[in-house]
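If you are new to this repository, start here. Below is one unmodified record pulled from the training split, so you can see the exact layout before writing a loader.
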Amino acid sequence: MSKTITVLPRFFPLIAILAFSLGCGGAPEKKYIPDARTAREALDAALEHWKSGEKHGPVEGFKVTVDVFDARWQAGKKLESYEILNEVPSDGPKIFLVKMKLDEDKEEKEVKYFVVGKDPLLVFREQDYNKASGTGG
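And here is the target side for that same chain:
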């Protein structure tokens, strides 16, 4: 006897937001793009949550739900330090360049994070965003 697990309902909002943010339908995707300040604050809250040793999952204490998609955090890696350097110009999701160091890294690395949605806000590491949106990774 085999057991079938369906993950589509859980990820349907994510798939819908990604589809709109990637440009299907013209201007409507703009309603799924947060303003730069809120996106940066959500990213900072997510990274601070990780750095403080919290387990991977929704970020508590932000004004809206923040869901984070970073396979390294989900795998139990520890974040030692980070600095949000700047916003990267984009017509779609808000993208930020972050200098960060995990406990296993010898030196800091620059990583891009994508932020989409309004409530919830979804924060993705670039590779995880590409996997979720079907553009590689």
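Two things worth knowing about this chain: The first helix runs from residue 8 to 21. The beta strands are 66-69, 79-88, 94-102, 109-117, 121-125.
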